[in-house]
UniProtKB/TrEMBL annotation:
GO terms for molecular function: methyltransferase activity. Signal peptide: none annotated. This is L-histidine N(Alpha)-methyltransferase. InterPro entries: EgtD, EgtD_Methyltrsf_superfamily, MeTrfase_dom, MeTrfase_EgtD-like, SAM-dependent_MTases_sf. It comes from Rhodopirellula bahusiensis. Gene3D superfamilies: Vaccinia Virus protein VP39. Transmembrane segments: none annotated. The gene is egtD. SUPFAM superfamilies: S-adenosyl-L-methionine-dependent methyltransferases. Keywords: Methyltransferase, Transferase. One of its GO terms (biological process) is methylation.
Length: 331
C-alpha cells in the first residue's frame, strides 16, 4: 500500500511558512547529496530528516508503542542516573550531539552540578532555539549554549569557565548506528579529539534482537515513520532544488541480517525523472532510495569499535530484556 502524503502536505505548509524552518545547503552539502543520489544505488543523507517538522515527527515516533528504543533508554537512564552522573564526574561542559528535544538530557541536568554548561548541538536551528529557551526557563541557574551545526563535521565549542573540569559528549538514542561502521569510527574519533585526554562519552546504542521487533519499530501501524521518511524529500525540495512528488513513493523498512542493521528506503511507485541539486535522475518503478541505516550492536562489538577510536569502556547499563545499552567511556 502506498503511503499518502496529501494530509501531511496540507498540515505542514503553514508551519513551514511561519517557522522558516529550512536553510540553504552549502557547496560541500550539495556534493554530498550528489554522491549519494546519483551513485549506483541512490541514497540520501539521513540528516535531512531533521528540519522543524521532521524533528516534531521524530518526537511523535518516540511515543509510539512499537518504537522501543526511546522508552527503553529512558528507563535505563531513570534507574541508573545517579551512577551515570557519578561516572561523568565534575564536567565543565556536557555536549549533546543531535540534541533534538533534549528530553532524556533533562534527567541528567536535574542531577548534575549547576556549574555544568549544557551545549546542545542540532542541525535544525529553529527547533534547537525553541528547545533551548524551554530549558533556560526550567533550569534558570544553568548555562545553556546551543550550537546549530551538522555534528558530523567539526564545530567550534563555546568557551568554558571551568578550566579544570573535563568535557563530556552525550550521544543518546543510538544515533551512532545511523552511520556505516567506518564513518561511525571517524565520528567517535572526532568526539575523542574534541574532549581531549580524560574527557568522557556517555552514549546509547541499540542491541541485536528479534528482527520482527526491529522491523515493527521502524514501520509503525499509524504510519508516522512513513511520514517522517517522506519529509526528507519535502525538505530537500526546499533546500536543494528537488522536485520529488511525495505521492509517488512508499516507505520500506527491512532488517539486513548479514549487516545487523535496519534499512529504511523510499520506493518509487512509477518510473519518474527527478531533479536535485541541478542534476536529474530517472528512477525505475520499484527502484529504492536508501534513506537511513540503523546498525544494531553487541556490547563487546561496540566496545571494540570505540576502543579503535581511542575510548576505554568504564561502565555499561542495559535493560532487563537487553534491548538497549548506555555506555560510559573515557578518552
Amino acid at each position: 500500500m502506498v503511503t499518502s502524503s496529501t494530509g501531511f502536505a496540507s498540515a505542514c505548509d503553514a508551519d513551514y511558512a511561519v517557522a522558516s524552518c529550512y536553510r540553504s545547503i552549502d557547496r560541500d552539502e550539495g556534493m554530498e547529496i550528489q554522491r549519494g543520489f546519483f551513485g549506483e544505488v541512490p541514497s540520501l543523507p539521513s540528516k535531512y530528516f531533521y528540519d522543524r517538522v521532521g524533528s516534531e515527527l521524530f518526537d511523535a515516533i518516540c511515543e509510539l508503542d512499537e518504537y522501543y528504543p526511546t522508552r527503553t533508554e529512558a528507563s535505563i537512564m531513570r534507574e541508573s542516573v545517579d551512577e551515570m552522573v557519578e561516572s561523568i564526574g565534575p564536567a565543565g561542559r556536557l555536549i549533546e550531539y543531535g540534541s533534538g528535544s533534549s528530553l532524556k538530557t533533562r534527567l541528567l541536568l536535574e542531577h548534575m552540578h549547576a556549574d555544568v554548561t549544557y551545549v546542545p548541538v542540532d542541525i535544525s536551528g529553529d527547533y534547537l532555539n525553541q528547545v533551548a529557551e524551554n530549558l533556560r526557563r526550567d533550569f534558570p541557574q544553568r548555562r545553556i549554549s546551543p550550537i546549530a551545526a551538522d555534528f558530523t563535521r567539526p564545530f567550534r565549542l563555546p568557551s568554558s569557565t571551568a578550566s579544570q573540569a573535563r568535557d563530556v559528549v552525550y550521544f543518546p538514542g543510538s544515533t551512532i548506528g545511523n552511520f556505516k561502521p567506518a564513518f561511525a569510527a571517524t565520528l567517535l574519533s572526532q568526539m575523542r579529539n574534541q574532549v581531549g585526554t580524560g574527557g568522557g562519552l556517555l552514549i546509547g546504542f541499540d542491541l541485536q534482537k528479534d528482527p520482527a521487533v526491529l522491523e515493527a519499530a521502524y514501520d509503525d501501524r499509524r504510519g508516522i515513520t512513513a511520514l517522517f521518511n517522506l519529509n526528507l524529500l519535502r525538505h530537500l525540495n526546499r533546500v536543494a532544488g528537488g522536485d520529488f512528488d511525495l505521492e509517488a513513493y512508499r516507505h520500506i523498512a527491512l532488517y539486513n541480517d548479514q549487516e545487523h542493521r535496519i534499512e529504511m528506503h523510499l520506493e518509487s511507485c512509477r518510473e519518474q525523472t527527478v531533479s536535485l541539486v541541478g542534476r536529474t535522475r530517472t528512477l525505475a518503478k520499484s527502484e529504492r532510495i536508501l534513506t537511513e541505516l540503523s546498525h544494531k550492536y553487541t556490547v563487546d562489538g561496540f566496545t571494540e569499535m570505540a576502543a579503535a577510536s581511542g575510548w576505554k569502556r568504564e561502565q555499561v547499563w542495559t535493560d532487563a530484556n537487553e534491548y538497549f545499552a548506555v555506555g560510559m567511556f573515557r578518552a
